[in-house]
Structure formats: C-alpha cells, structure tokens
Amino acid sequence: MSILKSSKDAAALVNDNELIKWIGFVEKFLVKSEAPFKALTELNEELITKSVVLGNGLKPSAADVIVFSVIHSNVISLSSSDRAKLPHLLRWMDYIQNKEEFAKLFETVSIEKTQFIPQALKTVKKVEDSNAKKTVPEKKDSSSSEKVDLKEKKPADSTKKSEEVSQAAVDKKKLPEKEVDKKEEELSVSLLKIQIGLIHKAWKHPSADSLLVEEIDIGEAKCRQVVSGLAKYCIPDQLTNRRVVLITNVKPGKLRDVMSEGLVLCASNQDHTVVEPLIAPEGAKIGECVTFSGHDGKPEDVLNPKKKQLDKITPHLSTDGTGVATFKGIPFMTSSGPCTSTIPNASIK
C-alpha cells in the first residue's frame, strides 16, 4: 500500500472500483487462514486472456504493482511442480518485473520461458501438422507408387530382357551366318593354288595298277612328282608333253610308297567311265595361277587336311554345258582363256 500511496494520483486510484477490487484480492495473502495457492490459481485463470491485471492494454497499472508486490514472496517460494500449474501468472510476473523498476526491491522471479505462439499461428501449425501427417501416408503412397512404378518398370525390364533375348536370338541367327561366312571362306576356291603345268614324263606306279606317276614342270627349279589315278583311262604316252591343271598347295604325301606333291584336276562323266585331265589353253604360261572372278583371296601355303578344305571345295568344281571348267559357275581363267574339257557337265576332281 505504501507504493500506492507514493503515487501522485493516489486519491483517484483509491476511488477506482477496479483498483479497490484488486486491493481486496491481495488482502487474501495477508490473512494466514487463506490458502495462497488457491488465490494464485484464481489469478492465473484471470490472466489467461490478459497481459496486465487492470486495463485493456499492455501498460502496467497501479493494480499490477500492488498485486505483484504482495504475491511476490508467495510465488518465489513455489516449487517447480506448482509453478508449472501457473503458466499465465508466471508470464505476467515476468512481464511486470521487467517492465517496472523492481530490480532493487524484489528478488527476480526465475521463469523458464516457453515460446509463445499466438492462437492464429497455433491454428496454422495444426494445419501444417495435419498436412504433415497426411504427407506421411503420401510418402507411403509415393513409396508404394514407386513400388508400382517398379512393378511397372518390371515389364519394361522384362521387355528389355525380352529385347535382349530377341537380340540374342538374332545374334544366334547371325552366328550361323557368320559360320556360313566362315564356311564360305573355307569353301572359297581362292584357298587353292591352281597352276598350269607341263608333264615332261609319265610312268606306271610300281606297286599300284590304277595309278600313274607324272613329272610336272610348274616353273619351279625342280619338277613336281605327282601320283594320279589315271592308269585306267589313259596310257603314260598320252600324258607326255601335255599341259595340265593341278593344285600345288596340297600337303605332300606318299601314295603306295611314292611321294606325291600335287593333284592333277580331271573331269569325269556321271558314271566315271570317262575321265581326263583338264585342258589348259594354248598359250597359257607354265606355272601361272588360275584365277576366278570375285575370288581374289590369297591361297593357303599348304592346305590343312584336318580342315578338309579340299573335300569341301571340289564338290563345287564342274564343267558347264560347253565343257568350260568352273567353280560354282565361275570359269577357271588363265592369261590365254579358260581351262576346258571335252566332257560337258562333268564333275572335276
């Protein structure tokens, strides 16, 4: 009351009904029989919607000063649990002790401040929290949608796999083509080294009645010795000084103990009753290689018997209807023209 009396407007304040009401309120704390915590609880309820005890604004009044001064000792002695029950009172106490010059008169009431969130912001926060809660299922949905996407992607992956399988199938299909290409390469007549030769001498094989042995000049320093199965079809004198066509890159080997270093190509009718060596054209040079249009590959140095290259190529050698020797219809060519035979549509071996 001394603080109130010290005010210049003391008389006017005493006559203020609201002020008198608050003076009556603080008298409860002066009577020991009254329960102070109950009165503090009532004040806490009063301050729920107020910043100051008297007035509609934020400016503390004489009533705020009086109430603060009287209840200070009761509030500062409260336990933490009791203080927690009076949040609005403590907010008001903190506001008054920082607004008025009470630092020298009263011990500062220690307040554990919590962030004040206006009602409007609380509403916004609730909405945001609500949205956040909704977002969580959405995330689940998104994850599930991702799963769905994954499921949807699975067909794409399966499509991709099927495409890969299809591609693999295509590749597999291509493999035979490559094999065919490889076979074509193996079947190419260019692998054979076919040359024009001149038989200088021929004689019967010493231990085989069906074989003849020829000494053939192909332009090398030494003549080649070749064993041929021509004994049934011609005599040695018919072959002497005759131009022939022979394969010279076959692997040398013995036939009935006689070395053979080549293969004389002969035409044969269907029943093999007529067989004769291919005829090289007049003017063809000894040792020149026979060529085939479109087959410009390099001949093998020596044919590999294990690959059976010769066995794969010779079925495609034949004479046409006019007796011209061919490989799949392509003529055996020399510098003087094609090689021929008197047997049309014959096989060549």
Automatic annotation (TrEMBL):
Gene Ontology biological process terms from the UniProt entry: translation
Top-level taxon: Eukaryota
GO molecular function: ligase activity; tRNA binding
Record Pfam families: Arc1p_N_like, tRNA_bind
Keyword Cell inner membrane tagged: no
Alphabetical UniProt keywords: Cytoplasm, Ligase, Protein biosynthesis, RNA-binding, tRNA-binding
One Gene Ontology cellular component: cytoplasm
Cleavable signal peptide: none
Name by which UniProt lists this protein: Probable methionine--tRNA ligase
Organism of derivation: Olea europaea subsp. europaea
Organismal lineage: Eukaryota, Viridiplantae, Streptophyta, Embryophyta, Tracheophyta
